[in-house]
Each structure stands twice: as structure tokens, then as C-alpha cells.
Amino acid sequence: MFQKLPIIIPRKQGLLTRQELAQYLQVGYGAVPNIARRFKLGEVDAHYPERLVWRNLLGWLPRTTQGEQLLRTQLQDINWVSQTLGPAPSTIRNDIQNGSWGFALGVQLGDTSAARPPRTRRWWPAEILAEQDGTQVEVFHHVRPYRINERSQSILNQFPSINEAHEKHPEDKGELAWLFTDNAGPPENGPR
Questions:
Q1: 48 in Cβ contact with 21 (< 8 Å)
Q2: Residue 52: which of 39, 63, 64 has the closest Cα?
Q3: Mean per-residue pLDDT for 44-57?
Q4: How many CB atoms lie within 10 A of CB 145?
Q5: Beta strand extents in 30-154 (DSSP E only)
Q6: Which end of the chain is less congested by CB atoms within 10 angstroms, N or C?
Q7: Beta strand segments in 20-167, E
Q8: How far apart are CA 191 and CA 7, in angstroms?
């Protein structure tokens, strides 16, 4: 089953285009910018670095070229996990929600602050298959993936979290903070 899954090989070495990243994640082309912002996948010349994608989304970095090839395997959705492991998608979702899922949780690509839970969780096939066989994926370093702060994950409006940070630490507002106060001019010791 693993051999039949698509491998996404970037045209530019180590850099995925937006289309390639959409294929890798199995999401629409339009979903990529939001996912990239949520997971801090900085663009380099309109491309996304593969290693940053692997690290921030999956928490894995390759040790070998074989590891790179395995990480290039297209991420799979809940239907693939269901077909591979047996439980129905609804059972998998419930087990994840209840904390009783015994396999890798995958990565939730969707915005979890929406009214309905997103259905954009993806899994890295090599991890699921290794867990199914009771083996380890030896050609990788496990690293901490990027974790989104669920309280302030709205991409469209980050001002509440910025304001909250400034209220907690007013000394960090910087020397231009006077521009945003009710006072008409700069402070006595500020720039003129």
C-alpha cells in the first residue's frame, strides 16, 4: 500500500512551489497560504523549504537521502488511515478527541477555532505504517513540530493577541508606542 502513494519531488531542489505543497498536503491551492502562516512556513522566492515543512508540520527531519524520499510521500487523510488500520473515520475522530487514539495523531491543518471542527487532519504514511508494524522509522530525527497557540490562531486578526501581549508587558511597546496613545506629541525623552 505504501508503494502506491505519490511522492512529491520539488522541481527546485529542497523548495516546494505552492502547487507542490498543496499536492503534498492534499489540500486546495487556496488553502496553502493560511496553512503556511499558521505553521510558520516562510516563503523563499515564492517557494516553501521542504525541511521547514517536515519539521514544523510533522516533527521529523531526515538523516539520509532514503529518509528524504520517505518524507516526500504525500500526506494522507483520515480515509487512508481508516483503510490501513481498520477503524471507521468517525471512530478515529472520536478516539482522537477523547485522547484514546493509539497511533500518531497526524497534523491538523485546519483552523480549530472555527464553529465546526475542521476535517483537514493529515498523516505521514511511514509513521502510521511503522506503528502498525510495531517498528521504528530509523532514518529520521524526531524534532518538536511547530505548535499553534489555539487561543490566538486567527490569521486574519492578530491584533487581540498583540494587544494582550502589550498589556502584560508594557515595557516592550518600543519607542514608537507614543504614536498610539491619546497624547498629541512624543514623550519628553522620546524622538522629535
A1: yes
A2: 39
A3: 93
A4: 15
A5: 48-49, 60-62, 107-108, 121-122, 140-142
A6: C
A7: 48-49, 60-62, 107-108, 121-122, 140-142
A8: 56
Give the span between the Cα atoms of 69 and 8, in whole angstroms: 9
Residue 45 three-state SS: coil
Q: What is the pLDDT of residues 12-40, one digit of tens each?
A: 999 999 999 999 999 999 999 999 999 99
The single-letter code of the amino acid at 123 is W
Which residue has better confidence, 74 or 185?
Answer: 74
- Eight-state DSSP code of residue 60: E
Compute how many other C-beta atoms are within 10 angstroms of the C-beta atom of residue 174.
9
Q: 7 in helix, strand or coil? A: strand
Q: pLDDT value at position 180?
A: 45
User: How far is 90 from 82, CA to CA, in rounded Å?
Assistant: 9
How many C-alpha atoms does 148 have within 13 Å on its Cβ side? 22
Task: Dump strand ranges (E) for 26-132.
Answer: 48-49, 60-62, 107-108, 121-122
- In angstroms and rounded to an integer, the radius of gyration of the C-alpha atoms of the chain is 21
**For cell 502498525, what's the residue?**
132
